[in-house]
Amino acid sequence: SQPISQKSQSDILNLLKSDKNEVHDGYRIVAGVVLSRNPIIFRDPHPFEREYYLYQQRLEHIHASPFPVDFYFKKGSVAEKKWKEKKEREKADALLAFGLRKTKNKTSSEKIGEDEAIDSSDVSSEEEEIKIASRITSADLTNDAKSLDRALQRTLYLIVRKPREEHSWQFPQGGVEKTETLVQAASRELEEECGNCMDVWFVGRRPVGYYKYDYPKSFVKDNAEYKGAKVFFMAAHIFAGQVKVDNKEIVDFAWVTKQEMKNYVHTEYYEAVKDMLSEH
Amino acid sequence: MLSRSKLFLYNRYQFLSAVPRIFNKTFLHTYQKSSPPANLPDSYLFYPGRTSMLRMEEFYHSTLSTDLMILSYKDPESERKFIEKRQKEHLPIKKSVLTRDTNPFAINRPSPKSRGNKKRLPVPPKQCHKTIPKLLKIDVHCMIKEAIHSKQHLLSGIMALQCITSERPTVVYSKTGVAQWKLRKDMPIGCKVSISGPPMYTFLDKLVEIVLPRMKEWHGIPITSGDQNGNIAMGFPASALSLFPDIEGNYDMFPLMTGFDVIFNTTAYTDYEGRMLLSGFQIPFTPRKKMGRKGRTNRN
Questions:
Q1: Can you tell me whether residue B190 is helix, strand or coil?
Q2: Which of A166-175, B88-97, B149-158, B274-283 has the weakest average pLDDT?
Q3: A24 vs A219 pLDDT, higher one
Q4: pLDDT, position B44
Q5: How close B2 comes to chain A (CA, Å)?
Q6: ipTM score of the complex?
Q7: DSSP string for chain A
Q8: Beta-carbon separation of B62 and A56 below 8 A
Q9: Between A59, A114, A120, which is nearest B52 by CB?
């Protein structure tokens, strides 16, 4: 153990050097941001799930009480006529699908095969034709890692690249000052590193993860004040906007899923961080 | 010539099911087989399972539950204080109840009945992934005072509730009589329906996306709403019924439009967490204009 006079001297020196940043046990207190874009569309159903839903739809159709046409459509109204026309068209389509063509004179009362898939989303009349957008966007096809429109059914996390060789990719993070809370520090660091063009909401004031690491020995030799850092991760969601690279603190950024992150960040970092991230 | 009972089984699709129809859907006679279990399609009690994925449920599981876990987490010290406070405020009637598990005279014997009118709230369990607040069921209830003089008015309420929730409501009978309103005991005075699972999430979806944004002069559920145990209630005026897409189309078929109330039954143990859950589903809350003891906040 150090002699008392030497210890107090180094303490004073430390205070002078690091008057702003929070320190604990020689580790710098750092606030990190786990900024996520939530899933926008449904996840793809499992084939068994899909079959189950189709089966239950058929059962529901069989067991449902007959549709009360008189209750919903007034006799002789235009809406009733359109409804009847729609039903005729559906029947004709169903028969056509099995090669049983409808005769000119009368409507056929043949058996409809059990394999008729009753899909809930079908194109109705010409008036209201709702065009359903594609589940796979252009960003998916080009694998644009910077785009927020990629992987719409997954959660995307923001990782940034620092201008260094090793451990370059990480979550945005920065030191916590003595006069501010964790959320304030996280919000400030996010703005400093990634710009102010994002609509971000922090989930509460509690951290969701913790990662302690030691600085490499070459770095410690120069700055003797910190041995390493203790990172407290704060969860946040992005609703609009995009990252602006300033080329000073960060050089590059990417929006990646939990699985894709393995290809960017260091394995040690990933092991420490993966349990915070969602599988959805 | 098909017998009457067999005609009943053939629906508009006019085809036979894979399972042979050996069960009869009429009254049970001694020479017939017993009725099938309710989960089989041949039972008259059969209720089909879910037919699709539900937006609100998927949203809850992918996004909302994680955020709720983060927001409602209590550190061990705060959790201990919270549980102790709840236990202290809502003590059981007899001290012996506290030692029920260890008291040899109490084990395997019925617990004493609660006496008096004091409300006793359940004590919340230690927090874990299972205790994240979740929406259990929604109760929709309609009180129709016109039913006092004419029972036909009940039908309108029943039809309306069935249309908006897709479940058949049950009739509510009065428990006491009020001479001023000419109300007697055991008089049919309203209807209620309880929905959970897929119908609940579709109802919530309709409310949040279509009905609530279109309501006139409505700024949110009052923040004081809640039964101190995480269940939030709200009332709708009669005009709100016309905003539902199920009723919008054939508005004229309903002779009497009535208001109704909706009770969100959640697994939260405090009103604060219940409100947090509903806010996650995009239901707004508003502070009451009146000042006073409970005017602006609901600290529970």
A1: strand
A2: B88-97
A3: A24
A4: 78
A5: 17
A6: 0.81
A7: ---HHHHHHHHHHHHHHTSSB-EETTEEEEEEEEEEE---SPPPPPHHHHHHHHHHHHHHHHHSPPP-HHHHS-TT-HHHHHHHHHHHHHHHHHHHHTT-PPPSSS---PPPPTT----S-----SSS-PPPPPSS-HHHHHT-TT-SSSSTTS-EEEEEE-SSSTT-EE--EEEPBTTS-HHHHHHHHHHHHH-S-EEEEE--SS--EEEEEEPPHHHHHH--S-SEEEEEEEEEEEEEE-----SSS-SEEEEE-TTGGGGTS-HHHHHHHGGGS---
A8: no
A9: A120
User: pLDDT higher for A61 or B274?
Assistant: B274
Q: What is the pTM of this model?
A: 0.81
Answer whether residue A171 shows pLDDT above 90. Answer: yes
B150-188 pLDDT, tens digit each: 999 999 999 999 999 999 999 999 999 999 999 999 999
Contact between chains at A53 and B51 (C-beta distance less than 8 A) = yes
Quote the tokens at residue B235: 């009332």
| Res. B20: pLDDT tops 70 | no
B198 within 8 A of B54, measured Cβ to Cβ: yes
Residues of A in contact with B18 (CB under 8 A): 114
Residue A137: C-alpha distances to residues A143, A147, A149, A257, B208 (Å): 10, 10, 7, 16, 28
Residues 6+ apart with CB under 8 A from B61: A280
Cβ contacts of B267 within 8 Å, gap of 6 or more: B131, B133, B134, B136, B230
**The pLDDT value given to residue B2:** 46
Per-residue pLDDT tens over the stretch B100-124? 777 888 788 877 666 677 777 888 8
B-chain residues near A66 (CB < 8 A): 11-12
Phi, psi of B241 (to 5 degrees): -60, -35
CA distance A37 to A31: 19
- Cβ-contact B157, B142 below 8 angstroms: yes
Beta pairing partners, A24? A27
